[in-house]
Amino acid sequence: MADDGSKRPGLIVTFWILAVVSGMMMGLRLYCKVWRSRGLWWDDYTMLLSWMALVASVCFGTIMVLRGFGDHFWAIGPDDIVVVNFMVLLVTIFSVVATSVSKTSFALTLCRLTSDVYLQGILVFIIVSINVLMNAIWVAALAMCAPIESVTNNKFPGECWSSPVLFKLSLASSFYSAVLDFILAILPWVVLKDMTLSTRERLGVCLAMSLAALAGGIAMAKTFMVFHMSSADYTYSRVNLVILAFAEPAISIIAMSIPVL
């Protein structure tokens, strides 16, 4: 049951707008590549995987909101809070996968376009490091308590290791994600500087870079929120963090789709 201070209204619509718009842009990208007989490559398949993870995360986020996320913690019933906690865990897992794989797709695209071995090495390092660091968050979240049921349900007695470890890992991965977004926003010019591009193609690259930088800004905002998330009223105070967690991969997918259109 929502109270007067609820943030629930409009949350589900916001979640699905991000999923649908990014899905439409990705669909147009894939259609254009097939229509032009260019074929699909690993960057396309990883982008599709990223979007599927985003949709899964949005589905779990929808259930999470329907069961009370967005209301103050004390306004949510004990049975609902167990469901909310479980959905928060699933949202974390799939949104992290969506984000890390979207950056993987971007880096793979650049790998395909460049023959510079040094630059390819940098891109491979980006792919490996972002996937290891970001996905370590949900692995740590699952492993922090034994038995695993006690992670989301305090009715199960269990032993948990220090939560500051998870906090520091989340903070580090959010900051690193932001740094990589800005790097990936700049690298296209390095890769394409010697290529002859039409005005339309240059505009597409510029817009894609701007959106990639926006994704970096979103990641920086997430870092700031993670650093300041100390409230026990997490079902209310972390609403904006969840929105940004969905927005980052959605914006990345849109950014990667534009140059192909």
Automatic annotation (TrEMBL):
Domain of life: Eukaryota
Main subcellular localisation: membrane
Xref: InterPro entries: Rhodopsin_dom_fungi, SAT4-like
Localization terms from the record: Membrane
Entry keywords, A to Z: Membrane, Transmembrane, Transmembrane helix
Membrane-protein topology: Multi-pass membrane protein
Family: Belongs to the SAT4 family.
Identification of the protein by name: Rhodopsin domain-containing protein
